[in-house]
Design a protein that fits this description.
Strand content: 35-45%
Oligomer: single chain
Low-confidence stretches: 7-14, 190-211
Helix content: under 10%
Shape: globular
Largest sheet: 5 strands, antiparallel
Radius of gyration: 17 Å
Number of domains: 1
Length: 211
Amino acid sequence: MRLGVVVAVIAMRAPLASADIIEVGGAAVLAEPPANIALNQWESDTEIRGFFERQTVLFSDLALDHVNTGLVDHESLLVPGLVSAGTAVQSYLFHADSVDGFDALLSGYVVFDAPILGVLIKTASMNGTDDFLGRPGVTYGNSPGRRLELPPGSLDTFEISGDRTRLDFTLKFGAAYDEIRIVTAVPEPGSLALLSLVGFAGLRRRREARR
């Protein structure tokens, strides 16, 4: 059974800045979303469109579908985790919906100036976080196809870089649309944020060593 991971961001107290996207490439582009991006409302056969959603301080622990670095090219490689309540985060969404259900296979990447804490790729996870991570004024829709479908079910894959600043993704989409919500840390001016990823197994080993 795969062990969960707890994600925490520890930083000196300081006014919050904004985390920014500093580069996109491949089929990934930045775009201003329309008021409605539900199924068949924001279509393209050549672009994976991304946009900033919001900055917020979490009022409760946030469950992420995956938090580890490295390539995820199979459902079994997902490592879920938590971001603690009280953590300041920013959210971004990348959206791929083809014209008239055309089968498309596109790859792209995005680079941030703050660490990626993890991603949401499942329908329930994104539907359940629209209220506090979604962009105000945007209707997302709740289609069951709103997700990434990893092998062996389909060809969607993604990878968080070792330094946590870059996300690469390949999306296969057609009748349903693909979305991935990316949650990043928020930099604090005058301080050095420390991103700490601690596995439950490591915590247990240290506790046992102290006995």
